[in-house]
Every structure is written in structure tokens, then in C-alpha cells.
Amino acid sequence: MSPSSADGGQLTIRGGSPLPAVLFVTGVLLTLIAAAQAAFALGDGRPALEALLDLVFIAVPGLTFAYTGYWLPRSEVTGTYYPRIVAWMLGGILVMFGFVVLRDIHPGVTAEWSVGTQAIALTIGSVGGLLIGIQETRATIRTAQLEDRQAELEKRTAELEANERELERQNAQLEQFASVVSHDLRNPLSVAQGNVDLLRDEYEIDRLDTVSDAHDRMETLIEDLLTLARQGDAIRGVESVGLAELSRACWEQVATEDATVSIDDPPMVMADRDRLRQLLENLFRNSVEHGGEGPNVTVGTLDDGNGFYVADDGPGIPESERDRVFESGHSTVDSGTGFGLAIVAEIAEAHGWDVHVADATGGGVRFEITGVEFPE
């Protein structure tokens, strides 16, 4: 018989074992016998206390059997554990039977037990064995469950260790890549730029400006690639950083052309100063490059106090593009590298922050950084 469930109040048998049904029927019979025995005792004129004792000593085990037979199919105890419970019941019966036998053969005992008294003793022994068996079985099940959880935890720990080793290997590859970019590409780029400068001293050729611009773009690409490659160990510790002061310092490092900046007294934040500087500079460059002629860039605190923002009054970013602006290599202008906002997203994630694109007040784009921790 396949495992069944207990629905509609019906007694069901789990795992094909008849034990629950046997217990339930036995319990009902014992309860009926107890009621009949008590009624017979009262009708025979025996004391009410004797009738009550017959009722208690027979009905209580009967009710215990009936409830256990009802409860077992609905419990976590599966049919595979039923033989274990039966063994405990038999053990309880044997213990009480041994006690009865020893009492009967003891030379110092003259009083005889009636058959009913001996039956009650054996019934009590079976009930005791049943209850002990159920508790011991449940403890065994819990132990097995804990062992399974421990095995699953050890498996996941091993997987995490394997992932950590793989991450270390990938970080080593990234570091090697960064070294190649830093030395093997920058050196010939410097030689090329130096030769362009020498040619400018001898000749006035407009195309040299194009070559020089291409070199500058390559240098920017190298810088951004190095930044992305080294983001894995970017956050080494956080400290209290004055966002207003750092924003002013970052603005001075960006080629702002005709752009202006407004710093609306943003708060102190807990951050890695160097990485936060990188985030702000990239957002400033993005506003200068995409904000049109002479954009005004604003740094301020979000209304809900959950972070800060960098906004500009340029043309903004269409909603269809907002999900892609943080992708590596995505840029809407020919002069962009496509890595600036990807680096912003990497730095925000390393801090545990979120960065979102929204409309700025009065037009333009606003980059909102949320989840920021503030000094106490």
C-alpha cells in the first residue's frame, strides 16, 4: 500500500503498516471493555471506587492506544519506524510479565493476583513501552534530520570553498591582465605619443591632432579597464567621508569646460574614500560629456535621507536606455569609453549600495545612490 494522508478525519495507514489501525481498534475495544466492566461492577453491587479503578486502569490505556493509532499516520513517524515502536511495546509487556512472574513465584508473597489484575499490569507495560518507543523514535528522526542538515551544510561549505578558490584564480588572471595592460600597452602608447609630439615640433599637420586624440582615448580606455579589473579588491575599509568636501576636490580633477557645480550640503557618509572619489569623478565626467553645453551639476541628499544624488540639467537619459547605461562598453557618444558608469555600478555594489537613474528636477538626469551608511 502506498503512503496515504489523513483527510476528512479518516484513519489511514502509512507505508502499508497496519499498526495504527490495530492500535486504534485495540484502544476502542479496551475503552468499551472498561465502560462495560465499570457498569457491571456497579450493577453487581460492588463499591463505586472499585468500578472507578476498573474504568481508569483499563480505559486510560485504551484511550492512549486509540489516540496513538489516530496520531501516528499524521505524525513525522513513517511506516519504516513502526517495527521499532512495536519492539518497544513488546519490551514493555515482557518487563511487566517478568514482574508478574517474579511476584507469583516469590516465596514471601501469599496474596494472589487475579487474571484481571495481571491483564491490567501487562496493558500498562504495553502503554509504557509504546510511549517510550514513540519518544525514542522521534528523537531518532530528529537526529537523522540534524545529520542530514549537517551533511548538507558540509556540502555547501565545500562548494563555497571551491567557489572561493575559483574566485582567487580568476582574480589572479585579472591581476595578470591588469599588469599586461599597464605595461605592455602603455609603453608603446607612450612611445607613439612621444613621436607625435616630435612631429608637431617639425610639421604643422592637422591629422596629428586626430592621432593625439586617439591616443588620449586609448589611455582613457586603459585606465577604465584597469579600474574594472581591480574592482575585486577595491574596498579595503570604510571611514567617515565629507561628501561636500570630496565633491569639490573631485570637480577640480575633472575637465569641466563650461560646466558648473552646485553642492547642496550633502552629508558625511561611511565609504572607502578613494573608491568614492572614483565614483564621483566618473559621474561628473558623464554629466560633462552628455549634459550638453555648460551643464550645471548638483550634488545633494535624497529627500528620504537614504543616500545622495548627482544630477545635471542636460537632455537626460531616455527610459529605454536606463537599464543599459551601467553595462560595460555601452556609450551614447563616440568619444565615450562605455566603462565610466559600469565602474560607478561596481563601486556602489562593493559598498553595498544601489544606484538608480531618475529624472532630475526641471529636466536632465539624476543618479541616486541609496543604502548608504552614515556616521553616528
TrEMBL record:
SMART domains recorded: HATPase_c, HisKA
PROSITE patterns (UniProt xref): HIS_KIN
Recorded catalytic activity of this chain's protein: ATP + protein L-histidine = ADP + protein N-phospho-L-histidine
InterPro entries: HATPase_C_sf, HATPase_dom, His_kinase_dom, HisK_dim/P_dom, HisK_dim/P_sf, HisKA_4TM, Sensor_HK_Regulatory, Sig_transdc_His_kin-like_C
Residue intervals of the Histidine kinase domain: 180-370
Keywords tagged on the record: Coiled coil, Kinase, Membrane, Phosphoprotein, Transferase, Transmembrane, Transmembrane helix, Two-component regulatory system
Top-rank taxon: Archaea
Sections of the chain in a coiled coil: 141-180
Molecular function terms from GO: phosphorelay sensor kinase activity
Membrane-crossing residue ranges in chain numbering: 21-43, 55-73, 85-103, 115-134
Identification of the protein by name: histidine kinase
Organism, scientific name: Halorubrum alkaliphilum
E.C. no: 2.7.13.3
EC top class named in words: transferase
